[in-house]
Amino acid sequence: MEDIVSLKNQQVKRWRKLRSRKGRETYRTYIVEGFHLVEEALNTTTVEICCIMGSEKALALLGKVDHLCPIYHLTAEIVAELSETQTSQEIFAEVRMPQLEENLKLKGPYLLLDAVQDPGNVGTLIRTAAACGFEGVVLGKGTADAYNSKTLRSAQGSHFHIHLVSGDLKQLIQKMQHENISIYGTALHQKAIEYKDVSPQEVFGLVVGNEGAGVSNDILQAVDASLYIPIRGGAESLNVSIAAAILMYHLYDPQ
Amino acid sequence: MEDIVSLKNQQVKRWRKLRSRKGRETYRTYIVEGFHLVEEALNTTTVEICCIMGSEKALALLGKVDHLCPIYHLTAEIVAELSETQTSQEIFAEVRMPQLEENLKLKGPYLLLDAVQDPGNVGTLIRTAAACGFEGVVLGKGTADAYNSKTLRSAQGSHFHIHLVSGDLKQLIQKMQHENISIYGTALHQKAIEYKDVSPQEVFGLVVGNEGAGVSNDILQAVDASLYIPIRGGAESLNVSIAAAILMYHLYDPQ
Predict the structure, then answer these.
(1) Distance between CA B176 and CA B107 in Å, rounded?
(2) Are the beta carbons of B235 and A161 separated by less than 8 Å?
(3) For residue B190, is pLDDT > 70?
(4) What is the three-class DSSP state of A42?
(5) pTM for the predicted model, two decimal places
(6) Closest by alpha carbon to A78, among A148, A11, A24, A31?
(7) Rounded average pLDDT over B23-48
(8) Between chain A's N and C termini, which has fewer beta carbons within 10 Å?
(9) Closest residue of B to A244, CA-based?
(10) Could you report the predicted ipTM of this complex, rounded to two decimals?
């Protein structure tokens, strides 16, 4: 265990840069905060942990770490500098982003996010897709960063259990369609199909869209069919994470 | 239109009291903030509006109000005092809570909330239940207040389109079962039934529980059956609003 006592320490400077998307994309790492996420990272064999850091008390609470990564003991001042929560649990891990894969496997369903802006929604969508057994989530242009601290918090550790990629949705849709995989959009317009009229299946793509504007028109034109969820009783709409959950759990039949 | 310029005005004092649950229960009214909620209240014939209030600019933007309620023009200081949002739209309505009904109609499905603590979850649950066409939501002991400003914001005006009641869940479950209405709990235990094995139906009760503890044991013992949603791929759980949405949309068949 190494003590870090200065805010000017090189590691601290680096961790501070990981707060921004640009910094995370430069180093290809991100920071998770809190016992739940740190323990989940430690317990997932496919996750590469660069280091663990925290206050003396928090490191003691975490207990023995069976992991060959450096452990840093931080001062209260540095903990406060790194924390992005209101009441910090004073424990962090720096985690390596998974390698970008050139070719998606396409052996299970994918959730495609078209400009979903709210990090809380993106986190919940990742969490639900992982729980439903989806193979991956593709974050299209304009979507909140998967490694934003708010996204990480609302995903509750699901980042470690599902394939996450950033990509051009139109290209991916073409590629999937080329492999005879159906892609479903979500829409409110008249030509859309009520989702329960589509049979559950094993491999498909489902696109959900921006909180205000929905799925963009050029993507709706590219999909095989658009689905809608009936809205009854005078209500106006469903939250995007809710709508996606209803569709994912209806459409996916893992055989 | 009446101008209110002093923070010590009796109306302002009263509105300030409506910030707390105790105040709202004393006056049986609550405040909605922002154009969307105020307009939704104005457009819903069953909603009784006590008054509209806002800054000069916001009242001008709202336009002519076809409603026989007083309209108050507030100073910036009073607007700041009343607002519960980070960037206020400077428009409010005081709305009367619906009368407590002694007897629920029980002609459609009800969502029962057992100690759901987070106001954002309670709001999303109300919004989803309304969209799904549920007849009502019953807020059991320990559940966040339906008229909390955060609940109102995440429900997006659905309060006006669904029957909301606070009540003792065990008594209500007994009453519903006495009328041969099935009540479903949600659980992760082995005796639970996979939700897709239950056929869609027209009238039923669905109980969802606390974010950490789930549905309490004494309620699980009273329900007709407990349902579970399969969690795959290493994920741990679903958010309560997400789980409830999947179950509501699967279970309800409006005929």
Answers:
(1) 11
(2) yes
(3) no
(4) helix
(5) 0.91
(6) A11
(7) 94
(8) C
(9) B242
(10) 0.90
